[in-house]
Amino acid sequence: MVVCGLACWRCRWLLPLLLGLAIIMGIIALAGRGWLESESEPYVQQASLWESCTRGEEDLNWSCQSLMDYGWGRAAAATYLVGFVILVICFALAVIAFSIEILRFNFVRGIGGLLFVVAAFQIIGLVIYPVKFTEDIPLTGDNMFSWAYGFGWASTVVVIGCAFFFCCLPNWEDEVLGNIKPTYYYSSPERAPYLN
User: Fold this and answer.
1) Where are the domains of the chain?
2) Which parts of the chain span the membrane according to its record (predicted)?
3) Which of 43, 58, 79, 126 could form a disulfide with 38 if both were Cys (CB 3.0 to 4.6 A apart)?
């Protein structure tokens, strides 16, 4: 493992901290209006997970259409939102697991499994959205999937990394708890004549 290796007692909060970071990025993705934006001026199109907005080149007011009118819009929002809710539950379980010494390693691997479920739901939502959006919504000018969509992917990548660590952490339970005795190596002079 890493030099800290999660073997030091202070490092036990690193994984819940990363899950908290994933939650913050998920909130930004859910609330952000930058899933799709115009790439250059004039900025005539922007979209969130929930709606798509357009305006004329000279118009200052946005005209918005709900993506919940489309089946794929509801599916993308639902899968990402379900993944986010499970992520919040995993965060709460991780805090409990690392706070109570007796319970810590009893269900850490289960949290890792749930995090893989979170990643699957989020990936489904993040793939459905751009594929169906570009098929069903008329795009004006040059557009790009922007910062809020990127936060959605960043949250998913952090969740996948944490899932691997949560699944592998029980393999190093003794190292984390400091239950391993140091190993001393001794060689007798007869076996190592070159030491004389």
Assistant:
1) 18-172
2) 12-32, 77-98, 110-131, 151-172
3) 43
